[in-house]
C-alpha cells in the first residue's frame, strides 16, 4: 500500500472511532439527562439554550392587568412568612385518600379550552404554554416561564409525554400564583398537576398560594365523610426523573404536595408553610412511589410535615426543619384493604420544633395486612415535641389514657419490623417521651433504640419525670436511654 493510501486509511479509521465515540456519548448523555441529572442544586448547562415559552405570550394576565392597570411583571409579591409557632393540634382523622390515589386514572387530557372567568382564562393560557413547550412544533430544550407578577388561576394540568426534546422540560416559577377559591372549578382534587412526564425540573423563587384559609372551615370535610375533597396544591402523578427546588408552597387547601406513582423524584430547598391549625395540610405526601428524596427544606403545616404512605420504597428525608405540624410519619397504613407494604425509609438530620409528634409510624387496626420494614430515624433533634417517638398500631381508634395500653378490640394486621431509632435527643413537652404501641396479634420485631436522650420541658409542675411505654414490641436497646427504656 502506498504512503498516501496508508494516510487515508488512518484518517478513515480515526474518523470512524471519533464517530463511534460521539454516538456512545450521545447515548450516555440521554441517560444522564433523563435519569441522573437531578443531584441537589446541580447546575444544568442546557438551561441557557432553552427556548422560553412565557405564559403571558399565550394570554395569561396578572391581577393588575385583569383590573385594567399596568402589569406587575416588574415586581413579585414579597412574602412575610410566618414564624414557627407552638400552637399545634392533635391528629384529626384524615379524609380517606383513596380518591387521591386513584384520581389520576380519571384525569383529563390537559388541553381544556378557555373558561368563563379570569382564573379559567389563566388556566387555559398556562396549559397552552405547556403544550407548546412540551409537544408543539419546536424541537429542542424548552422552558415554561411564569414571570414575576401575581396570577390567579383555577386547576391546571401539565401532561406528558413531551416530545420537543430528550432534555428535561423546565418550569420556572418567578411569579406569585394564587389558586381560585371557587371549589366548583376543581373536577378532581388537585390544583397544579404534572403527570406522565419523563424528565422534569420545577424551579424558581416564586410561590404557589393555595388560599386554603378560604376553605379550611367551610368545606365540611371534617364532619362529612362523603363531601368533596379539597384540592392539593401540587400533584406529581406518574412522573419520573424529576427535580423540584427553591419554590414556596403557601396555605394549601389540602396537601401541599402529593407524589403518586413516581420514580426518581427529588425535592430540594423548598419552603412549605401553613398555620398549625389548618386541617390536612401535609407538606409532602408520598404514595406508590420509589426513590423519592425530600432534602434541605423548611416545612411547617397543620398536619404531617412529610407523610410516607402505602406502596413506597427507598425514601430519603434529610435535613428538614419541621414545625408546626405532626412530625414525619410513616403511614397511616392499612385503612384500605389494597394498601401496599412500605420499606427502606430513611429519615435523618432533622429538627422538630413544637410539633405534636416527631418520629412516628402509624397503622390502622383494620382488614388490611402488610409490612412496614427497614425504617430508620437517626440524628434527630426534638425541641418541645409532645410525642417525640411513636409507634401507633391503633391509629384511628378512640385513644385510651396515656400509660393504660392500646385500645381493645381488633388489632392491626400490619407487621412492623427492623426499625431503628438512633441518636434522637432534645426535649419533650409531655411525660411520655417514647410510646411503642404495637399489635398484640402481630408484635413489632427488631426495634433498635440507640442513644435516646430526652429531658422534660412541659407545662406540668408536679410531675416532671419522663417515662416510656411499650406494648408488644421486641426492643434492642443500645447506648444512652433517657428516660429508661421499658422492656
Automatic annotation (TrEMBL):
Keyword Nucleotide-binding (UniProt): no
Compositional bias annotation for Basic and acidic residues: 86-102
Transmembrane spans: none
Highest taxon of the lineage: Eukaryota
Alphabetic keyword roster: Cell wall, Cell wall biogenesis/degradation, Glycosidase, Hydrolase, Secreted, Signal
Signal peptide annotation: 1-29
Region Disordered: start-end pairs: 77-122
Protein localization: Secreted, Cell wall
One GO process term, biological-process aspect: carbohydrate metabolic process
SUPFAM superfamilies: Pectin lyase-like (SSF51126)
KW Ion transport (keyword) present: no
List of catalytic residues: 326
InterPro entries: Glyco_hydro_28, PbH1, Pectin_lyas_fold, Pectin_lyase_fold/virulence
Example of a GO MF term: polygalacturonase activity
Family that this chain belongs to: Belongs to the glycosyl hydrolase 28 family.
Designated name of the protein: Exopolygalacturonase clone GBGE184-like
Organism: Prunus avium (Cherry)
Amino acid at each position: 500500500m502506498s504512503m498516501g493510501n496508508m494516510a487515508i486509511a488512518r484518517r478513515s479509521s480515526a474518523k470512524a472511532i471519533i464517530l463511534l465515540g460521539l454516538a456512545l456519548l450521545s447515548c450516555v448523555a440521554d441517560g444522564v439527562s433523563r435519569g441522573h441529572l437531578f443531584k441537589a442544586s446541580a447546575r444544568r448547562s442546557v438551561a441557557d439554550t432553552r427556548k422560553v415559552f412565557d405564559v403571558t405570550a399565550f394570554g395569561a394576565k396578572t391581577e393588575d392587568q385583569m383590573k385594567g392597570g399596568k402589569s406587575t411583571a416588574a415586581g413579585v409579591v414579597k412574602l412575610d412568612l410566618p414564624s414557627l409557632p407552638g400552637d399545634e393540634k392533635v391528629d384529626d382523622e384524615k379524609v380517606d385518600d383513596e380518591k387521591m390515589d386513584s384520581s389520576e386514572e380519571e384525569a383529563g387530557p390537559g388541553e381544556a379550552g378557555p373558561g368563563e372567568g379570569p382564573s379559567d382564562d389563566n388556566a387555559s393560557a398556562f396549559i397552552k404554554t405547556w403544550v407548546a413547550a412540551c409537544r408543539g412544533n419546536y424541537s429542542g430544550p424548552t422552558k415554561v416561564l411564569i414571570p414575576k407578577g401575581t396570577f390567579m388561576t383555577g386547576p391546571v394540568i401539565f401532561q406528558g409525554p413531551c416530545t420537543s426534546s430528550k432534555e428535561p422540560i423546565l418550569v420556572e416559577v418567578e411569579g406569585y400564583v394564587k389558586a381560585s377559591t371557587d371549589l366548583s372549578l376543581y373536577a378532581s382534587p388537585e390544583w397544579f398537576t404534572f403527570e406522565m412526564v419523563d424528565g422534569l425540573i420545577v424551579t424558581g423563587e416564586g410561590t404557589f398560594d393555595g388560599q386554603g384559609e378560604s376553605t379550611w372551615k367551610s368545606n365540611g370535610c371534617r364532619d362529612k365523610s362523603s363531601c368533596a375533597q379539597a384540592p392539593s396544591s401540587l400533584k406529581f402523578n406518574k412522573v419520573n426523573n424529576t427535580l423540584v427546588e427553591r419554590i414556596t408552597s403557601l396555605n394549601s387547601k389540602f396537601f401541599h404536595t402529593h407524589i403518586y406513582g413516581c420514580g426518581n423524584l427529588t425535592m430540594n430547598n423548598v419552603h412549605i408553610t401553613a398555620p398549625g391549625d389548618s386541617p390536612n395540610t401535609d407538606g409532602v405526601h408520598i404514595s406508590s412511589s420509589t426513590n423519592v428524596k425530600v432534602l434541605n427544606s423548611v416545612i411547617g403545616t397543620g398536619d404531617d410535615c412529610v407523610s410516607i404512605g402505602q406502596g413506597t420504597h427507598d425514601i430519603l428525608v434529610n435535613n428538614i426543619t419541621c414545625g408546626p405540624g405532626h412530625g414525619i410519619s410513616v403511614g397511616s397504613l392499612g385503612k384500605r384493604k389494597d394498601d401496599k407494604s412500605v420499606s427502606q425509609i430513611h429519615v435523618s438530620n432533622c429538627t422538630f420544633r413544637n410539633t405534636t409528634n416527631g418520629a412516628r409510624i402509624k397503622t390502622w387496626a383494620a382488614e388490611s395486612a402488610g409490612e412496614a420494614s427497614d425504617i430508620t430515624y437517626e440524628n434527630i433533634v426534638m425541641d418541645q415535641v409532645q410525642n417525640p417517638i411513636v409507634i401507633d398500631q391503633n391509629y384511628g381508634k378512640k385513644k385510651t389514657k396515656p400509660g393504660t395500653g392500646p385500645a381493645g378490640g381488633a388489632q392491626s394486621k400490619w407487621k412492623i419490623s427492623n426499625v431503628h431509632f438512633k441518636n434522637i435527643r432534645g426535649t419533650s413537652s409531655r411525660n411520655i417521651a417514647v410510646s411503642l404501641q404495637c399489635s398484640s396479634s402481630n408484635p413489632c420485631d427488631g426495634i433498635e433504640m440507640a442513644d435516646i436522650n430526652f429531658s422534660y420541658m412541659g407545662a406540668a409542675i408536679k410531675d416532671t419525670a419522663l417515662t416510656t411505654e411499650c406494648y408488644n414490641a421486641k426492643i434492642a436497646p443500645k447506648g444512652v436511654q433517657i428516660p429508661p427504656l421499658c422492656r
